Amino acid sequence: MKEIKWFPGHMKKAIEDIEENRIKLADAILYVLDSRAPISCMNPNVKKIVHNKPIIYVFNKIDLADMKKVKAIQKELEDAGNKTVTISASDKNYKSVIKNAIKQILSEKMARNESKNLKATYKILVLGVPNTGKSSLINMMSSSKKAITGNIAGVTKANQWVKIDDELIMLDTPGVLWPKFDETISKNLAYIGCLSDNEFDLSDLGYEVMKIIYENYPENLKARFNIDWSAEENTKSINEEDFNYEDFYADEFLQIYDKLCLKRGYIMRKNEIDYQRAGKCFLDEFRSGKLGGITLD
Ligand SMILES: Nc1nc2c(ncn2[C@@H]2O[C@H](COP(=O)(O)OP(=O)(O)O)[C@@H](O)[C@H]2O)c(=O)[nH]1
Ligand SMILES: [Mg+2]
């Protein structure tokens, strides 16, 4: 596997700052996950990293996800004793969902302060891999654009505190990735745009994500492209003896992929398919939710 340069200098400094200073100050952690690949976004050591501070797992971007899968993953986390919420940071109606979850998770601390007539401000640290919507969440909570957002990984470079109301302040962090992830996880993170596209061949990335969608969400593709594959005739003559099923299925999608490319008109001169352009465009369609609610994990 190609080594991915996902650990730029500013990120290393930011991580050190978070681990050495910010976590100590925090009353609670909002751990933002992209609902299109929530498990891939999750660091298994997060509890240790945040010194067992209370964590709320925030499944963001539910407008782009497969809620059946999200609910199942959410239930597993809840059953293991974790606090979770599902939101879309682009919809300010979810403000109260976050606020209530924080109140619940800090209820004892808040009650203690209240009984002493102390007016406290609670510090919430917002963590998660790049592009999961941390800055968007803070903007939604503060009803203003104080945190800088962007659809490319690594937009937030400095650790910045934002006042939400009289009770809450939140610390936005640059997307923190942790050094260990396997190929499946890194691919999932790449498909949803959490890793820099520069590190990947987009014609491969687009093809692969379309194949995954074809295998797991065929209805989504049928609806979007208005193609009925079940009606496709398989014209291959099959010699059962030396028939390689693995190749056949790999081939089968390649043929379908070509049809999708042609349908979209991704053609170069000399009647060749423009796989580079196709990969990039299909990735965009997936990332912007045009292929329907999808969860890869
Ligand atoms: N569709 C959708 N897009 C979102 C949502 N939350 C964030 N985004 C988009 O995801 C991209 C990354 O968001 P950002 O807040 O910068 O992520 P950060 O790197 O974690 O701070 C931006 O283009 C946002 O507009 C959401 O709930 N739904
Ligand atoms: Mg950000």
What is the strand and helix layout of this fold?
Layout (H helix, E strand, L loop, with lengths): L8 H17 L2 E7 L11 H4 L5 E6 L6 H13 L3 E4 L8 H11 L1 H9 L6 E6 L6 H9 L17 E4 L4 E5 L10 H9 L10 H15 L1 H8 L19 H20 L10 H13 L10
Parallel strand pairs: 1-2, 1-4, 2-3, 4-6
Antiparallel strand pairs: 5-6
Helix pairs in contact: 8-9, 8-11
The protein binds guanosine-5'-diphosphate and magnesium ion.
The site of magnesium ion has 6 residues, from helix 6.
Could you walk me through the main structural features you see in this protein, from its secondary elements to its overall organization?
The chain is α/β, with parallel strands linked by helices and 297 residues long. The chain has 2 domains: 9-183, P-loop containing nucleotide triphosphate hydrolases (Rossmann fold, 3-Layer(aba) Sandwich); 201-287, Orthogonal Bundle (Conserved Hypothetical Protein Ylqf, Chain: A, domain 2), CATH 1.10.1580.10. It is 43% helix and 11% strand. The protein is built from 11 helices and 6 strands. A 6-stranded mixed sheet has the order 3-2-1-4-6-5, with helices on both faces. The radius of gyration is 22 Å and the shape is elongated. The structure holds guanosine-5'-diphosphate and magnesium ion (MG). Residues 60-61, 63-64, 88-90, 128, 130-136, 149-151, 155-156, 175, 289 line the site of guanosine-5'-diphosphate.
